[in-house]
Request: fold
Amino acid sequence: MTRSELFSQIQQKSSFLCVGLDPDLEKIPRHLLSEPDPIFSFCKAIIEETADFAVAYKPNIAFFEALGAKGWETLAKVAEFIPKDIFTIADAKRGDIGNTSKLYAKAFFESMNFDSVTVAPYMGKDSVSPFLEFDNKWVILLALTSNPGSMDFQLIEDKAGKPLYQSVLEKSQEWGSPENLMYVVGATRGELIGKVRVLAPDHFFLVPGVGVQGGSLSEVAQFGMNSSCGLLVNSSRGIIYASSEKDFAQAARREAEKLQLEMKDLLEKYL
Ligand code: OMP
Reply:
């Protein structure tokens, strides 16, 4: 999917919502456990009920990988089930020496036809570039993450006072463009989102951390929105586990709609 196709979907739906698919057998409603593929049934119902409000889906690969070979089959079925006009993110946080990264890229872009994959920048250019060689596919590079451990390395300053995340943003812009490179910027770092926006004015940000992790959607929009919106705000648990009863998909729909309505107002205010 191209950047302009993504932006037109955002405008059409008045939404920049990414629904995170983090399906955990221990958390999904009990009645689904008798289905032949409970995780697929769960994701399918969530997708059917939230697709009106979402411009992206982000299956987190760990939740599928944890189930072994069957989990990979389920992931492929989920990826295939997501409507083709909705942006898909394989949240795999990959990255390795060049020839290995190339095969990771093939796995997610060719075998499963995802639009994008999350990539860790730690191993540098040759670990990221193979993902950038695919037409109309995207790298979503970890820049400033939402977790407490992000302080351990990402905020360390060099002798000139430049934090590591800033070096990641500056250097990686030599490898990709706003047409094929996005950044992960956590919603829990509200005070820093504006700084990241200055460093990467045109790139899309994938922003996890609203909802359960406590980030503020309005702050994200205030400091992070650009003239093409430039934001995909993810919520996983806050949507998919809104209810653990038979009405789980309808409850997910209500949560997704709530976020979309907030996003509509924010788009009107800042776009
Ligand atoms: P919830 O906190 O349940 O909304 O889930 C957040 C999702 O975003 C999980 O799948 C995380 O793995 C992912 N995530 C973060 O929470 N923080 C980050 O900095 C980066 C990610 C990610 O790359 O998606």
